[in-house]
Amino acid sequence: MKESLSVTILGTSGGIPTVERNLPAIAIKKGREIILFDCAEGTQRQMGKAKLSVSRISKIFITHLHGDHVMGLPGILQTLSLLNRNKPLYIFGPNGLGAFIGAVKTTVEFTLTFDVYIKEITEGVICETNDYSIECVKTKHTISSFAYAFIEKDRPGKFHPKKAIALNIPRGPLWKKLQQGETIMLDDGIKIEPREVVDPPRLGRKIVYSGDTAPCDSVKRISKNATLLIHESTYGDDLKEKAIETNHSSATQAAEIAKEAGAQKLILTHISQRYSNPNELLEQAQKTFQNTLIAEDLMEIILN
């Protein structure tokens, strides 16, 4: 069975929460595992609304240490302790992340029931499993900040049960071996190659999250051929100068990154509270990159 992969955008506002928009956090769900990117205040409540279990968080990746991206971490740590978690939690982010979490542990009255492993990062591949890797690059912001790419490894091709049955391959371990690319031998000495019952491998999917950034080559580079690019769009083109001043991006600038990188889909997020109706941002971006959406809180994107 194909393992599911989905993205839930838990918060979409920049700087200040609004009635409609919580602050930044994104959850990637792969199978039963949940990976968080940024963790604003209210993230765990947003997860509850999205029916995502906080207990299933395995790793958290913080783009930078502005409060609107990190202030939900203390609550997550306390909740997991109240739930008697015993599995370790891995948290990645820029220099200073360890000091921030250390201050929480020494000043807030609760006892951690699990190990927290903190990795302060530099550019490159910072995490790798059998199924995916996480890569990061530095972005252009007012403090040290990173963009992340979730890069899924190539997936097995589609398995065809009817073909297996026609070749008299018994259900069970032999089917699994073929799905994993192994050649098998039947009891009668007949050799079966995986290509006889399994389609060619499928390319892994790639999800990129920019964090806060002005347009920069590093984000364009890491976004190359992304299945999904989630890029900040704090301002519209009317405030392009403000975007430059604060090292943020406009809607059109985010669209230009998506187009030049060859991304398949762009989602604009980190929307300034001044835009009660962000459709103007969408219209601006779509002039450059048609396959663009505006992020809404609790939006879920299922990747096939």
Describe the structure.
This protein has 304 residues and is α/β, with parallel strands linked by helices. It folds into two domains: 5-155 and 202-302, Ribonuclease Z/Hydroxyacylglutathione hydrolase-like (Metallo-beta-lactamase, Chain A, 4-Layer Sandwich); 161-196, no CATH class. It is 25% helix and 25% strand. The chain is built from ten helices and 16 strands. It has helices at 43-49, 67-70, 73-82, 97-107, 161-166, 173-179, 217-222, 240-246, 251-261, 279-286; strands at 5-11, 25-30, 33-37, 57-61, 89-93, 116-120, 124-128, 132-138, 146-152, 184-185, 191-192, 206-209, 228-232, 266-269, 292-294, 299-302. β10 (184-185) and β11 form a beta hairpin. α9 packs parallel to α10. The longest helix has 11 residues, at 97-107. The two termini are 13 Å apart.
SSE layout:
Elements lengths: L4 E7 L13 E6 L2 E5 L5 H7 L7 E5 L5 H4 L2 H10 L6 E5 L3 H11 L8 E5 L3 E5 L3 E7 L7 E7 L8 H6 L6 H7 L4 E2 L5 E2 L13 E4 L7 H6 L5 E5 L7 H7 L4 H11 L4 E4 L9 H8 L5 E3 L4 E4 L2
Parallel strand pairs: 3-4, 4-5, 5-6, 12-13, 13-14, 14-15
Antiparallel strand pairs: 1-2, 1-16, 2-3, 7-8, 8-9, 9-12, 10-11
Helix pairs in contact: 9-10
Shape field: globular
Total of DSSP H or I helical runs spanning 4+ residues: 10
| Strand percentage | 25-35%
Order of helices and strands: EEEHEHHEHEEEEHHEEEHEHHEHEE
The rounded distance between the terminal residues' Cα atoms is: 13 Å
For the record, the count of structural domains works out to 2
Sketch the major β-sheet.
7 strands, mixed
In the sheet with the most strands, the strands line up as 6-5-4-3-2-1-16
Report the CATH topology name of the largest domain: Metallo-beta-lactamase, Chain A
CATH architecture assignment name of the largest domain: 4-Layer Sandwich
- Which structural class is indicated by helix and strand composition? alpha/beta
How many E-type strands? 16
Percent helix range: 25-40%
Q: What is the average of the pLDDT values?
A: 95
- Low-pLDDT segments: none
Radius of gyration: 22 Å
CATH class of the largest domain: Alpha Beta
User: What is the fourth-level CATH superfamily of the largest domain?
Assistant: Ribonuclease Z/Hydroxyacylglutathione hydrolase-like
